[in-house]
Amino acid sequence: MSSAHPLKIFLYHHTITMKIYNVIRTYRRDKRNKLSDEEFAKWSYKNHTGRELNLENPRTFDEKVWYLKLYERDELQTQCTDKYEVREYVKKCGLDYILNDVYGIYNSFDEVPFDKLPQRFFMKCTHTSGANVIYDRNKPFDYKYYKNEFDFWMKRNYFWGSREWNYKGLVPKIICEPVIEDKNGKLPMDYKIPFRTDLAPITEGGYSQAVEAGGMIFISGQMGRRDATDKPESGFVPWSAPDQAEQALKNIANILTEMGSSLSEIVKLTIYFTDMQYLKEIHLRITEQLGEHRPAMSCAEIKALPRGCKVMIDAICVREKD
Fold first, then answer.
1. Which residues 6+ apart lie within 8 Å of 280 measured at CB?
2. Strands 311-318 and 216-222
3. In the chain, what percentage of residues exceed pLDDT 70?
4. What is the chain's alpha carbon radius of gyration, rounded to the nearest angstrom?
5. Cα–chain-centroid distance for residue 73?
6. Are 51 and 257 contacting, i.e. CB atoms less than 8 angstroms apart?
7. Is the pTM of this model over 0.85?
8. Chain centroid to CA 159: how far?
């Protein structure tokens, strides 16, 4: 859910700064619109992963997702992307009983009758992602700030920033609905998404290599094995502790790449090792891979790790948002 950033509030409450900010914001939004879909895909993939995107013979999960985004054409995807039109499809499937109520559907922020709607509701754009806010009449609500936000969102064609074909022809609307809460009056938790890739080893005990929840990625402890063909029962390559640390972080990087993220989004690393004498060299190997990025870090010397491994690293990431 969108929240008011203090700097944006300042900018929006001064006419000149608001106009300058909107010009810059619009330029950032539209500057790559002239690229073809394939050019944009290759630029975006290289920018986030440092690797070339193979659309001719996609092999990794991320490459296959990009291929589908560019070339799959299914009108049902477009209908299900629109947060209002999807309701008709749900009704057609005989599942209208699961739908939330709708207080109103509007063409602009100015059309929303705040004084006639319930005292608390959820309002969001139907054609894009991340454009929403909870209105509560009993709490402060900065109308000028959110008018500027919704005016900007309503002019945004999400397709150009992602090249997801299903967004391209959506008609911008604002939908107002009841706020869905749990029994404790809190917003429901996001779904947790487990993840697996063959570009990193199978996790000991069969746990997920990573789980994404609430905009965060939690990566299971990675050790000095190379990929999914290096099975747990085969043991570990007898590398030194620094070599194992370097490989463990490479495994983390591979997992993040497949999830559309990167090492630069890591906010916390935890390193476990069996001998303190290797700490300095382990830190050197890790900082070389991280470049200028410096996440929070904890280190712990422990008695033993599975199968005689000398180093294990886990990570927490937060996805960056525009």
1. none
2. antiparallel
3. 87
4. 24
5. 24
6. yes
7. no
8. 16
